[in-house]
Structure formats: C-alpha cells, structure tokens
C-alpha cells in the first residue's frame, strides 16, 4: 500500500499522532457529558462548480458567507463546546477565505474537517490546507467514468488523489456510492481499491431520497455494498448493523440525537437537524444554547426509523445506551434525491 510522502516523515507521523490523541480526548469528553455537540457541519458556500443530478445541496447563484460572519458562527459552535466541525456545501473550495475559516475552527479546539468534490485541488491548495490545520478531508467519487448523473469520476479525479497522497498531512477518506441510478455498482469496488492503494480510508454510502429516507438497494448494488464493507479500512459504522439494515431495506430502531450531538448549520446560519430536514429547529446558531442541545437530546425524531444519514447515526450511537427520549417531533420531508457524506 502506498504511503503519503508527507505523512511518512517525522513531521507527518507527529501530526497524525497528535490528531489521534485529540480524537481520543473527543471520545472521552463525549462519553463523560451529553451537554455539547460532538459534530457540527457548517455551510460557508452553497454555490458549487458541479451540477450532480442527485444533489439538492447546491445552487449556482449564492455568494460566499462573509468571513467575519463565519468567524462568529464558528465561535458560537466553540461556545457550545463542539468537538468536531466539518465544512460542507455546495463546494467549500470555492470560498475565498476557506483557510482562515479552518484556522478559526482549530482555534476553538475542534477537530477540523471538510467534504469536497476535489476538482479545485492542486499542490499549492493542498499545502495551504496543511498550513491551515485541516484534520480530515472526504472526497465522494461516484463513478469511474463521468456521465449525466455525476462528473465526480475516478478518471477525472485520479491525478488529484495522487497529489493528496504525495502532499496531504491530513487524513483522507474516499467515499464511493451505490444506488440512485448509477450505471455500474461495481464502480464502487474500483474506487475503493484505488483509495486503499493510495493509503486512504475507503468508505461507501447509499443514495437516499430527498428527505434522507430509505431507498432499498437492488441485488447487485447490495452485493457490492457488502463486499466493500467487508474490506479492511472500510465503513466503520458497519459494526452496529445500521447500514446493513439500510442495504436490506429494513428500518432501524435508534435514538437520533440531531439538534444536540449533531448540528447542521446552513448558509443562513440556522441550526437544522440535518441537510435533509432543514427547518427543524431552524434557530440561528447565535441564539442556540446548551438548553437547546439538552432538549433535542431527549427529542425523538419521527423520520429516524427510515433515515439513512450515516454521519448522524454514527454520532448518535455514542449515546445509544443512555437517556431514552421522552418527547417526539416529526420533521417535514423534501422531494429531491441526495447523498450524505461522512467524516
């Protein structure tokens, strides 16, 4: 397996060790107290340079959120004690002040991550992300060859992946997908194999509907999914059978802690349960309090049984053994199709 030249230096090994230590502290803090978010995803840019047919998380007109406003939002997450902050979009790399936002995230003490389509990466950009203190990057690659559904293909992005392998000091995860009309589910196996060759983590996601709800896999898609999850360095959520049930079209019985342990902050600065349940609770992050976090911790979400959004489930699973939820809310539903990434 290839190893990043940057990560295989003494400096690279030191950065990786420090990151692992901070992650272990994050887990310990999460187990000790339920009164703070573990992961928040924040959107500094709704604009995207691509137009994937399944996605409802972008537009072609939005301006970047001003840097000072992003500072305020990140600081509010720090005030709540947020352990991890992930940047999503849109396409984060189109924001002109992305490096400064990452630095601000690190200043709060949070682990800093981002989800990107990877198109705008080059050596200079990767080095700037190193310098800013990025901890984790996820790139979702949908197919081997670009088509009408998605241009996020291995053929287009492979040189970008090689640059990351040579220069990135941060952890890189390559997420492939099944479902949603992609022509050949076996593409996910090719993408996952290439990710492992380059020394990256490889995960696989399942396309869900526009409200984050279940879309059972076809037989050939399920075969590929389970082959991927049985590999080493693949989706670490598989141990709790959540994704397995999704692949088989079965609902899950779990306690969703969205609005509490997981927050989604849109480009307008509002807190939502997730990218597919916008409007709930719909409170500005500036006004979100620890009391809101505690209330939502105990609030069951009616959309949870058929939810496929893995990052929310993984964070919620930290507290699966405690605090039965005593109130219920039924969020609304969207109408488009989208995929949810994970850190």
Written description of the protein model:
- The protein is α/β, with parallel strands linked by helices.
- The protein is 33% helix and 15% strand.
- The chain contains ten helices and eleven strands.
- The protein has helices spanning 10-32, 67-79, 98-107, 123-132, 154-167, 187-197, 219-229, 242-247, 290-297, 310-317; strands at 39-42, 84-87, 111-116, 136-140, 171-178, 201-206, 262-265, 270-272, 281-284, 299-301, 327-329.
- The strands form two sheets. Strands 6-5-4-3-2-1-7-8-9 form a nine-stranded mixed beta sheet, with helices on both faces. The protein has a two-stranded parallel ribbon with strand order 10-11.
- Helix 3 (98-107) links the parallel strand 2 (84-87) and strand 3 (111-116).
- Helix 2 runs parallel beside helix 3 (98-107) and helix 3 packs parallel to helix 4.
- The longest helix is centred in the N-terminal third of the chain and has 23 residues, at 10-32.
- It is globular.
- The two termini are 22 Å apart.
- Residues 233-239 and 333-343 have low confidence and may be disordered.
| Coarse shape | globular
Note the total helix count.
10
Provide the β-strand percentage band.
5-15%
Mean pLDDT: 87
- Sheet having the most strands: 9 strands, mixed
Global Rg: 19 Å
The assigned structural class equals alpha/beta
Measure the end-to-end span. Answer: 22 Å
Helix content: 25-40%
Sheet with the most strands: spatial strand order: 6-5-4-3-2-1-7-8-9
**Which residues form runs of ≥5 with pLDDT under 50?**
233-239, 333-343
Total number of β-strand segments?
11
* Helix and strand element order: HEHEHEHEHEHEHHEEEHEHE
């Amino acid at each position: 397996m290839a190893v990043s030249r940057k990560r295989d230096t003494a400096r690279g090994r030191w950065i990786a060790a420090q990151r692992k230590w901070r992650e272990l502290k994050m887990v310990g803090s999460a187990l000790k107290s339920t009164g703070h978010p573990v992961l928040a995803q924040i959107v500094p840019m709704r604009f995207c340079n691509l137009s994937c047919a399944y996605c409802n998380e972008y537009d072609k007109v939005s301006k970047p959120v001003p840097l000072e406003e992003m500072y305020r939002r990140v600081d509010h997450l720090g005030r709540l004690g947020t352990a991890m902050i992930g940047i999503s979009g849109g396409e984060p790399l189109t924001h002109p002040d992305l490096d400064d936002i990452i630095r601000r995230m690190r200043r709060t003490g949070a682990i800093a991550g981002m989800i990107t389509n990877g198109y705008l990466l080059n050596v200079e950009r990767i080095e700037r992300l190193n310098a800013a203190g990025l901890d984790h990057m996820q790139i979702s690659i949908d197919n081997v060859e670009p088509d009408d559904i998605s241009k996020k293909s291995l053929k287009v992005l492979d040189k970008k992946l090689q640059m990351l392998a040579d220069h990135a000091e941060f952890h890189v995860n390559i997420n492939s997908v099944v479902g949603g009309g992609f022509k050949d589910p076996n593409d996910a196996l090719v993408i996952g194999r290439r990710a492992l060759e380059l020394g990256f983590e490889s995960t696989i996601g399942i396309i869900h509907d526009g409200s984050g709800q279940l879309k059972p896999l076809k037989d050939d898609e399920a075969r590929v999914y389970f082959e991927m999850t049985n590999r080493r360095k693949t989706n670490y959520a598989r141990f709790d059978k959540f994704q397995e049930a999704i692949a088989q079209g079965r609902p899950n019985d779990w306690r969703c802690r969205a609005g509490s342990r997981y927050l989604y902050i849109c480009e307008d600065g509002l807190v939502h349960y997730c990218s597919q349940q916008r409007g709930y609770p719909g409170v500005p992050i500036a006004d979100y309090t620890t009391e809101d976090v505690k209330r939502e911790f105990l609030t069951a979400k009616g959309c949870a049984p058929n939810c496929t959004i893995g990052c929310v489930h993984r964070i919620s699973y930290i507290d699966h053994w405690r605090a039965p939820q005593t109130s219920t809310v039924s969020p609304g539903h969207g109408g488009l199709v989208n995929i949810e990434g994970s850190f």
